[in-house]
Amino acid sequence: MSAQTTITAVAYLALSAHLEAAYPHEGAGLLLGKADRIDRAITSVLTLPNRWDDAEQYHRFLLTPQDMLAGEHEAARRGLDVIGIFHSHPDHPAEPSGFDRDWALPWYVYTISRVSDGRLDHTRAWRLRDDRTGYTEDTFSIIGQPQRTP
Amino acid sequence: MTTIRIPTPLRQYTAGQAEIAVAGTNVSTALDDLAGQYPGLRGHLYTEQGQLRGFVNIFLNDEDVRYLQGAATPIADTDRLVIVPSIAGGSDAPLVKVDHAALRVNQATIITLAVLGFVVNAPWLVALVAAVMTIGTLLQRPGFKPLYASVLKPLGWVKPDVIADNAEPHVFAQGLGAAFLWGATIALFAGAGVLGWALTWLVIALAALNLFAGFCAGCFVYYWLARLKAPGFLKTPPAGTFPGLRPRG
User: Fold this and answer.
1) CA A49, CA A72: separation in Å to the nearest integer?
2) What pLDDT is recorded for position A145?
3) Which of A5, B118, B191, B248 is deepest in the core (most CB within 10 A)?
4) Does B135 touch chain A (CB under 8 A)?
5) Surface of A (101-130) touching B: CB under 8 A
6) Which of A81, A91, A132 sits opposite B8 (nearest CB)?
7) Does residue B235 lie in a domain region?
């Protein structure tokens, strides 16, 4: 059975809004919540600006070490941990690319959302294997009802 | 001994410990000692070629060692190193994409302001449009893009229209339009009204051709220069597209 990643509906709304606003560029940010030995529970997100060069943001994102430090502080302030990273693949599959893998860390959960024509289509959750050869996919589910107008 | 703080995702390789005491006289030897103590870390810190991975950033007492002496930065027993990851990623999207909605907002704004300049006989408006287009060209984006990105798109009044295309010809086309408008501005302020407004109307007409018919005359010039192997003109039209014509989405 695969590991589970859950996200609260409120956090998922914030994630969606950030990624849709970033379209046609990639958007990104930090996933805050709690991790147990296997599963990850996202209760809040920290939206961050994409620091990659403008011209390449259609297929790249970057969060700097300063962003990560600030994220750790903010997570601590909220009594949470940074448990992963979210980002979008505009008009591309919600699957990790080779470039994603080169830059990935173990333990973190990486959610990738496909944004098509400016609307978030779906999200999948991934974790890097220990030997860095690939990913395993988590079961990803949203807790509660999203309060979203069509 | 010097200590190294381990980021949360890598603590599984240090038996859960956040701070590890290491031996070493500089950053490089300290990291080597760390990887020696906890071999599971090595593959995540270093590439197969032995280079530090792109996401590994080392801070010495809150300062990025890149801005000190890098891996050769000397360390003392009382120092504290912190490993801070940076995070990057992205899709396999191979082609550059251009948001044609941003281009159309740019063209519509250029047309509106230039026509207004003519109607109220305000050469300064022509100069303003020329300046915005020049700044846009230097920044390699549509000059009036903020109007689109910060106002019209968030309000939902204009929807993104992203298609595989080259950005450079559009930047060049804008630069060409800016050059014509600067010529117009000089003519207008020098009293050559007919020449000045003729140049202005040329830019209005070409922007309208692009806005309403999807033909970018400046892009056409760009692709011809590329075909003539002019230096700096490297892009070819997207497959199956006539030079200057809007690619099919």
Assistant:
1) 16
2) 73
3) A5
4) no
5) 102-108, 110, 117-118, 130
6) A81
7) no
Q: Per the structure block, which two tokens stand in for B133? A: 């287009």
Q: Work out the pLDDT band at A55, boundaries 50, 70, 90.
A: low
Which stretches of chain B score pLDDT less than 70? 94-96, 239, 249
pLDDT by residue (tens digit) across B161-218? 888 788 899 999 999 999 999 999 999 999 999 999 999 999 999 999 999 999 999 9
Query: Quick one: fold of A4-143?
Result: Cytidine Deaminase; domain 2 (3.40.140)
Is residue A24 reached through a cis peptide bond, with omega within 30 degrees of 0 on the bond before it?
A: yes
Chain B CB contacts of A87 under 8 Å are 89-90
Domain boundary assignment for chain A: 4-143
pLDDT of A36 over the 70 cut:
yes
The residue range of the domain holding B7 is 2-85
Q: In 3D, which of B36, B34, B41 has the Cα closest to residue B19?
A: B34
Query: Considering only alpha carbons, which residue of chain A is nearest residue B87?
Result: A63
ipTM of the predicted structure?
A: 0.82
Chain A neighbors of B90, CB-CB under 8 A: 26, 52, 59-61, 87, 89, 97, 99-100
d(CA B187, CA B61): 60
Determine the distance from the C-alpha atom of residue A21 to the mean position of all C-alpha atoms in its chain, rounded to a whole number.
15
Q: Please list every residue in chain A whose beta carbon sits closer than 8 Å to the beta carbon of residue B51.
A: none
